DNA sequence: TTGTATGCGTTATCAG
DNA sequence: CTGATAACGCATACAA
């Protein structure tokens, strides 16, 4: 308990307890065997001095750091924040510590972060890869013996376990439901960056979760209709989204419903619609991914595709823990159901 | 570049480059001096083998981990998420890595996390202490040579640098402004947990930021009026907040404005008001702390006390970096201005 | 400029 | 059950 300024080592405790370094290390490290008497003496000494084990030295010695690394696109996004929470909760329960970092959805940054984490000797990596066409850094991590789990985003061929939503099926079902409500022209709005403002081809989408959603969206298109032109990209920031909404509203025949690919896009679309005096759902329906706080606060509340994100994180942590524990076998792809939460923003198409 | 399965060490690189371990270590570690020729040979060998330095071993050797630890109340709260982002951004720029953890606003958990972080040899700690009456663990960290910076929450007497808002002054000014708008009965709603549903005394509030806000709130009370009864506590979760709003609405004479102590409380209060058909600001005004996403999405948009949270984080990181760099001197208390962003939810009191 | 030898704080092996 | 002593991977004082 005594405050001190120099770091104490097992040697110091050993000296105080009048035992050898090895014995002190045994009781402090909780391994090997010692008599009850010496055990107590050592613990007492450690207590008195205020000894605190050096985990780094322990890691170097054992080769196990007890660390797992996490790379997300944006910790400020509630989706990732909650996922991180899920990861942390189950990792900590398993005695693992977590290092979190932010790629900002930038590939170069992601590479750099993975490298840093590997140098920190993380025993496993949970990543939301920003570009599933360029995952050499992840493959290399796996090749060098550090297991990788992707979260929210499955990467075909990488061989890493992945936790993600049932994006394609859920979207197809959602669009079918919307068509039953009379919606014939639906727009999809996403933050994915492309050269043109509309999607040219699915291959432009390097994030599987979004690609699958769009695939589900396109699969619902009636024969002969090209829905690609209904997929609006580059929806990053208020100005861009406002412009997209403006474009949408001036189309003829009019779009009657909007799908927002994440909760940030959803919020801005809602705002742009409100600002223009568009009534939801009378004039326009809106559905967004992720049940963010704001979705239930607006009037009307917003229909969302609920992603059980905390569970995404928990499952990802479970997977990485299993792999760290030596589990072998082919990559496991876990698809989590993402049920629709129906709220006021989704209604019948106008005039239907 | 070659994939391998065993971890490589300087020794391996040295062997491949046909130099001594020390020489290899020098060029790989970027210290000491070497000839250009051997330098290139070593780098080439490292490249070929796919060598990756072990930062933990380096840390043990140098005594510097390059890590700073962060303990926040809730990473899912946008306030903390953004603060963490600010911390990470400037820490990384200074070559430091960040370990983030969640106390869940639980003191025991906070203590445990601080302990874990210290064992991980973090060189500094940035903490949002959940109880400023019990900071022995932080004092101990400082005493043992690990500097501490508190964020959002100043702790008197701890001796740690602190970054926080100008809570008291900003609140007093805000309340004055509201009084000028005719509001005579204002309620303050906070998630702070107390035995009773109303605040009995300021000392019950163990988080300085909130205490200061309430102090500012109370200081605006006209002589003879006890505003304590207007401070509603335990506002955690939708049900509790709904009950508080219900109580508020049934008071006579009626409350005409509500202050929500954080953005989660604010969102739920807004929702509870909407659900009851209360018109903002015609029947009730609302002001919340933190400019969360949802604040600009509602109709009307919500007036907020803007906390430049990314800057909170950046400044906290700067402080901890300075202290790690050896800066001495008394604890620095930096108060950041938190300007009001006036939006539709704040209007004149009804009938004024 | 390079190599040798030792230390960092821990674990872990091996006698005693 | 305990105590020397050698790792772990890297840094560093000192010698060559």
TrEMBL record, chains A, B:
Record domain HTH lacI-type: where: 8-62
InterPro entries reported for this sequence: HTH_LacI, LacI/GalR-like_sensor, Lambda_DNA-bd_dom_sf, Peripla_BP_I
PROSITE patterns from the UniProt entry: HTH_LACI_1, HTH_LACI_2
A Pfam entry, by short name: Peripla_BP_3
Example GO molecular function: transcription cis-regulatory region binding
Keyword RNA-binding: no
Keywords, alphabetical: DNA-binding, Repressor, Transcription, Transcription regulation
Transcription as UniProt keyword: yes
Name of the protein in question: Substrate-binding domain-containing protein
Organism: Pseudooceanicola albus
High-level lineage: Bacteria, Pseudomonadati, Pseudomonadota, Alphaproteobacteria, Rhodobacterales
